[in-house]
Amino acid sequence: MSLINDDLQNLLITYCEPENELLQQIDRETNLKVLMPRMISGHYQGRVLSMLSKMISPRRILEIGTFTGYATLCLAEGLSKDGILYTLDINVELEDMVRNHFSQSPYNNQINYILGDATETVNNLDEIFDLVFIDADKKNNGTYYDLIFDRVRPGGIIIVDNVLWSGKVLQDKQDKDTKNITTFNDKIATDQHVEKLILPVRDGLFVIMKK
Question: Which residues on neighbouring strands pair with residue 61, listed in sequence order?
């Protein structure tokens, strides 16, 4: 999924902050026990998410797509002291693992882990968010974006993962999944209510700031 070679990736990791022990544990456990472990954000992307969160110091974070909780804990590093992070996921099979990961974190009491269809559970949240991270089923990127947009404060940040789709967005002939990604990217490119840029981090992070 990374768009750069392994040598350069290793160099980037050398020059960023290290993972703490819990994040290392989550990475190992995910790779050993979970199908499609490549979905985990991993060390470098995790540090990018942490840095962006710390720059904002959000009181309210929304994450759509928890997976095994790695990115959740990276985002939580920037929470204000009275902050809350809501993370939504549909995979009940990972619940015990995820809750165990959160229980070992100093941010456990600030994390609200909600299981169910995010297109429904997000409507139960009466919050205005400073930071949103969308990393779930890619075909619904546009749906999630529309659902949360009015719940993001002006100046708030929306981050969407996997928007370069292993470089497949460059292809003239695109499969259904790639077309969905491209359609979403085009939607953001023409949205006059936001400022936006894509960071070529791992599989592409769309960073979108609401005007």
Answer: 85, 131
Residue 171 burial by CB count (10 A; 0-12/13-18/19+): exposed, middle or buried?
A: exposed
Cβ–Cβ under 8 Å, residues 136 and 91: no
DSSP labels, 14-81: HTSPPPPHHHHHHHHHHHHHSSSGGGS-HHHHHHHHHHHHHHH--SEEEEE--TTSHHHHHHHTT--T
Q: What whole-number distance in Å separates Cα of residue 193 and Cα of residue 201?
A: 24
Backbone conformation region of residue 187, classed left if phi is above 0, alpha if psi is from -120 to 50, else beta: alpha
Which has the closest alpha carbon to 13: 43, 53, 50, 48?
43
The model carries a pTM of: 0.96
The DSSP H or E segment spanning 102 is: helix 95-103
Task: Please name the residues in contact with 164: beta carbons below 8 A apart, sequence gap of 6 or more.
Answer: 3, 181, 198, 200, 203, 204
Structure confidence at residue 169 (pLDDT): 94
Nearest CA among 105, 207, 94, 11 for reference residue 85: 105
Per residue in 141-178, pLDDT (tens digit) is 999 999 999 999 999 999 999 999 999 999 999 999 99
The secondary element (H helix, E strand) that includes residue 189 is helix 176-189
Q: Are 158 and 132 in contact (CB under 8 A)?
A: yes
Q: At what angle do helices 42-56 and 6-14 cross, to 10 degrees?
A: 40
The DSSP string of 70-95 is: HHHHHHHTT--TT-EEEEEE--GGGH
